[in-house]
Amino acid sequence: SVLSGSNIVIVGDSDKAFETISLLGDISARVPQIIGYRGLPEEAPENSVSSFLLAAENGASAVYADIRLTSDGHTIVFRGTDAASVTTGSGNIDGLTLDEIKSYQLWGENDRFEHLYPDERVATLEEFLDAFENLDTIIYLDPALRDIDLYADMIDLVADRGMSDRVIYVC
Q: What is the pLDDT of residues 29-47, one digit of tens each?
């Protein structure tokens, strides 16, 4: 697909990403964009602020974050619906309040990140945006629900921080 002029190449690890980019550099007029999908999950808990910042520090020009709503209406950065998949808690994310979600660490039981990131929590969208406010990183926001109110909330939060020129909303 690289030789056919593909616009997107998805790979499972950063070594493969850099290998693919080296191929694209010789055959493409476009500048490749390295996107930290869920951050840099090989090095920090996926979808954590630490993971996204590590992706940016290690050469990603953009990060891609999944966005969900809590049961009490807060916008959070989280992929999937099952809290147990990547946290120390349990339950459907959409049925939990922000306080409940914030009581869980962002790593599962016996996770390799337990000792490296003992206090990592699921981030609100505000916390995530604040971490990138002074960086030039492009941000892709992908809401789990295609809900006009969720988009309005995201757009307002981004605009309030003056980041509208570098945030892309996935529809």
A: 566 788 999 999 989 999 9
pLDDT at 11 over 70: no
In 34-122, DSSP assigns E strands to 35-37, 62-69, 75-77
Residue 167 CB partners (closer than 8 Å, separation 6+): 138, 139, 140, 141, 158
* Alpha-carbon span 147 to 69, nearest angstrom: 10
Q: Which two tokens stand for residue 165?
A: 């020129």
At 115-133, the pLDDT tens digits run 899 999 999 999 999 999 9
The count of C-alpha atoms lying within 13 angstroms of the C-alpha of 161, restricted to the half-sphere facing its C-beta, is 21
Using CA atoms, how far residue 96 sits from 121, 125, 156, in Å, is: 14, 16, 23
Contacts of 126 (CB under 8 A, 6+ apart): 75, 157
